[in-house]
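Inputs:
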Amino acid sequence: MASYGFFDDLNREYVITRPDTPLPWINYLGSEAYFGLISNTAGGYSFYRDARLRRITRYRYNNVPLDYGGRYIYLRDNDTAVFWSPTWQPTRHELENYTCRHGLSYTVIDSTCSGIKAKIRYFVPLGESLEIWQLSVTNLRESPARLSAFTGIEFCLWDAQDDATNFQRNLNIGEVEVDAGVIYHKTEYRERRNHFSFFACSEPLAGFDTQRDLFLGPYRGWDRPAVVERGQSLNSVAHGWAPFGSHHLRLELLPGETRQIILLLGYHENPDGQKFDPPGSQTIDKRTIQPIIAKYLRSENVESAFAALRSYWDDLLSVLHVETPDLHTDRMVNIWNAYQCMVTFNLSRSASYFESGMGRGVGFRDSNQDLVGFVHMVPTRARERILDLAATQLDTGGAYHQYQPLTKRGNDQVGTGFNDDPLWLILGVAAYLKETGDDSILDVLVPYDHRPGSEQPLYEHLQRSLHYILERLGPHGLPLIGRADWNDCLNLNTFSSSPGESFQTAAHRDGKVAESVLIGGLFVLAARELAAIAEWRGPKEDASRYTDEAARMEATLLEHGWDGSWFLRAYDDLGQKVGSHECDEGQIFIEPQGICAMAGIGLRDGRAEKALAAVKDNLVTPNGIILLKPAYSHYYLELGEISSYPPGYKENASVFCHTNPWIMIAEAIIGHGDQAHDYYTRINPSAREGISDVHRCEPYVYAQMIAGRDASTPGEAKNSWLTGTAAWNYAAITQWILGIRPTLAGLEVAPVIPVGWSGFKAQRVYRSVTYHISVERVGPGDSVALVADGLPVAGQIIPLPPAGQAEVKVRALLG
Ligand code: BGC
Ligand code: NOJ
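Outputs:
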């Protein structure tokens, strides 16, 4: 197997040592409002808040070759006319010593070609809407080097979807300004936009270009631009066509000399009344942006912004730090899984190599689950996210399935009716409360569907979430599935026979028959969480009400949702079982086995254990646990999209990684530490690094799916980065296997680790107290005896220390 790089744990970087990775291995820039994705060869794009509506640069999804459009630099030897890209793409000229270091919110690409070393560090300063490209060029030759450097980016005309389709208009509207060496992109600024982007350079220019097709030349691509080949910019000014940004610098470097160049690409808004200078002209008023540009063109400010970014990540990651006997666990928990959780929180499901940033806004179900993975790092942003999500809930208790981040309003195209959606809000809020203890959030008045006058306390929203399910029960008393439940592709009311029709939004049945066992299990889980919340902060009578509802649903599930050896998946619109040994295909599904056990269903009578044994016997593969078995070999009209995928891919029996941690958690709940950690390791990307040629996606982040055993490419991952897998694996390993678990009453320590582990150490900052936890195995079991600051603790929850005490030492004896 080829090696493409290695983990540098000390620096928290993944170092890629050859540019031709199996797929672009990407990273993210930006933490708050300005974001970009960047590949190991500098491909990618940037946007402000919303990858669809405020796209700053273009990127060509689906391009041949892969990964075209990016943050490019060309270097040219003016004596020989040889030119290359220090990031390999787009010229793909051979390089020596190429490395790409993907770090936390920054990427550094470094290479040497013909005795010229170049290094570019890309990052977004905290609090700013711009990215910095810090380029240094060193002459390693023994003679002076006369070089040209050209930058190259392609501006997007803001709305990425329109930009890729509406050519009759778009080829006419592009406008730029070039002023004092800064290239401003201002398409539509003359009319209804008050924002523009800018591309600035710290050095005096030998020229510039802003018209793409003049820069590239007719019939040429990014790999061989005419301007670079000739060695001289044209000072082109774009009018329509494709606005572009290229600076041209000439560099004369003595032997051993290094030059630092700073480039800034950013986004800026002017107040409506101050768009033009002088007023009445069509020239951008640059008075508010110029000081920002000037600030970051100075290297001492760039260095301090980078140091601030590093310490921002130090702080975020210091909330939980573990030292276990397993390197892959430590690396993911301490660095990459936590990082992926933050990126997933920031971007939801909008922009990755696999997500074009146009299709999907912020998902209701997805974002509530993401909370579980990041709430401990940024509780205030979790609070804000919860309130945004709740404001897209409808007064029925149902929810818009997604919203656009720029408008925060529910997306009508996708609409509502995914009947599991509202339950995730309860789980998201529960995670927030357990982490922070901040019950004031429950009293915040939040509207339904943003409708003024409809505001109700968040607690009422949570109650309506449960009632939404109870008001929609089917023939067996199980929840109706609606358009789909967690599994977007189990579309039991769709019956679609028209090509191209959306499986999620078309409905050719009235939805009154098909029921979901998964939603039933999720209901029990959520009702028990809400009961616990009510018990904790009142009203207490709600606690018994929801406990009773949970018990009723549990009884229904045991009666109608049990197949003999595992939990059924659903009943379809024809009243037929889905996920039963009676089915021809799709006899056992993973989701209800995990979720029901997590909800406590079948724990007492051994059914949960039996269901998990069935998972082990039927679904476990070397690459993880597949979603169902046997895979659907043809299209079933009554099941929907799930059977549209070829066997082994996506929801049709891939290892759909999001579901695997549910089984890990369930195994931990029944005390199987070895089994839980074994499942954890099978999909841990770091543990799969050695098979990168098979896995193909980045070894430092989870992917949504790994092709299952029925696929022609088993083990091949797809859809990396933006997936609920990040949050759930983080929860499984940290809260259930390592067992450091926030609860409403305080921090619980209840590890269920492999028998072979002698223990582990952890540091956890929780409600402003730092817990230094040492777990020591004294026997093979999982019972815990806790000692906090030398005093024995009754039970598994460490009492919160008196106000003012900042540290607690915890010993956990496990045996
Ligand atoms: C995918 C699902 C995804 C859904 C979202 C489907 O095509 O297979 O994984 O959740 O689209 O719209
Ligand atoms: C990805 C979607 O974003 C998520 O909401 C869904 O639960 C899974 N696919 C499974 O279909």
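Remarks. Residues 488-489, 504, 641, 650-651 surround beta-D-glucopyranose (ligand 1) (CB under 6 Å). The two ends are 41 Å apart (CA to CA).
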